[in-house]
Amino acid sequence: MYKILIIEDNPDIVANIYAFFEPKGFVLDNAHNGLSGLALAASNRYDVILLDVMLPGMDGTKLCKTLREELHDKTPVLMLTARDTVLDKVAGFDSGADDYLVKPFSLVELEARIKALIRRHQDEHFQHSIEVGKLSLNTEEHSIKREDKLLKLTPTGFKILHTLMSASPRVVSKTELEEKVWGQDVPSSDALRTHLHSVRAQVDKPFDKTMIVTMPGVGYQIIDPDKV
């Protein structure tokens, strides 16, 4: 039985979600503005949060950022929005959202996205700590260290690094990496390259040896440079 928080100010959308999901056994809570949604998220445990971007009181991007950075809440967040530009999507992912669905959307697709997020979240939390050489990542603490130096990444950068480290030393294709990070809604063809540049600036640039390797035409991998 999955518990979902809906933070959405459109009563018709909320009613449709309730009508579709309650008969399937989902337990639903809802808030019609950002402040009450944040209060519910802070005081209850949910499997997924459905979050509208344009909300009264506090917009969805700020709410998601508050959840991640101040409350350290790692509940999967699926953003619901009428905005469909690359910049809007990147802003949503950088605030800590896990997936993005543009209105109007199919309730069948919404259910598939929710279940995929729950599976991914459960898989990530099965293994809390990953190490590749002197690089370590902890999903519980949301922390990354290389040679005992604490690194700072955006939520999207963290997902990219987590995916590469989980697969290491296997090469991860561009398509697989994009799917792991953004699901079915990749923001743009250049989004991965842009975020990888930021990840490399933290993981590789301050150090003598490179760990993130690009395999032209194949994908990306993280290696232990001391074993090469």
Termini Cα gap: 47 Å
Low-confidence segments: none
How large is the share of residues in beta strands? 15-25%
Please report the number of helical segments: 8
Largest sheet features: 5 strands, parallel
Q: Could you tell me the radius of gyration in angstroms? A: 18 Å
Tell me the total number of β-strands: 11
What string gives the helices and strands in order?
EHEHEHEHEHEEEEHHHEE
Q: Decide which structural class fits the backbone.
A: alpha/beta
Helical residue percent band: 40-55%
Please tell me the overall pLDDT: 88
Layout of strands and helices, then pairs:
Elements: E1 3-7, H1 11-21, E2 27-31, H2 34-43, E3 48-52, H3 60-69, E4 77-81, H4 86-94, E5 99-102, H5 107-126, E6 129-132, E7 135-138, E8 143-146, E9 149-151, H6 155-167, H7 174-182, H8 191-203, E10 212-215, E11 219-222
Parallel strand pairs: 1-2, 1-3, 3-4, 4-5
Antiparallel strand pairs: 6-7, 7-8, 8-9, 10-11
Helix pairs in contact: 2-3, 6-7, 6-8
Describe the protein.
This protein has 228 residues and is of the alpha/beta class. It is built from eight helices and eleven strands. The strands form three sheets. It has a five-stranded parallel sheet with strand order 2-1-3-4-5, with helices on both faces. Strands 6-7-8-9 form a four-stranded antiparallel sheet, covered by helices on one side. A hairpin with a 2-residue loop joins strand 6 and strand 7 (135-138). The chain is elongated, with a radius of gyration of 18 Å. The termini are far apart.
